[in-house]
Amino acid sequence: METEPIFKKMNQDMNKSIDHVTHEFSTLHTGKANPSMVENITVDVYGSSMKLRDVAAITTPDARTIQIQPWDKSTAQPIEKALIDARLGITPIVNGELIRMPMPELSGERREELCKMAQGFAENSRIGIRASRKEAMDALKVAQKDGLPEDDFKRSEKEVQKITDDSVNKINRALSSKEEDLRTV
Description:
Blueprint lengths: L3 H24 L14 E4 L2 E4 L4 E7 L2 E6 L5 H10 L7 E3 L2 E5 L5 H38 L4 H34 L2
Antiparallel strand pairs: 1-2, 3-4, 4-6, 5-6
């Protein structure tokens, strides 16, 4: 009985959880302008919903400003509405065909709120990691019933736990880094 496919699937699932949480962290703004904060906002243009990154150029001319330049001037109004509806806590300023979003200074209270959000994202990812671990363990138990030797089962069980611990540690390190970033004034 081969355990490789079990480990391959578990590693893929755990890496997805880690990638997802790091992407979630990138959407929490720390007072520094970052295009990823707005690129996935949905804009209603041309009779359908499109991602902001698909209808405009998003740049950061300086550390505290996001600049959005619609490719079609007629989409400036729907983009402004989508930015307001997204409730980012940043008021868009429309200047002709350019939309600027100056980053406000974060209050201590807001920084703590963002840290709590980051902790929630991290916990959801840890839950995903544990679900991947359980899935792998269940698959190993099935493999054991199908003839996987006891020694291989025990070794695989330890390996699953080690990979799980490593994945959770990656999430915890990313969370610590993000919290430090959020709390740095």
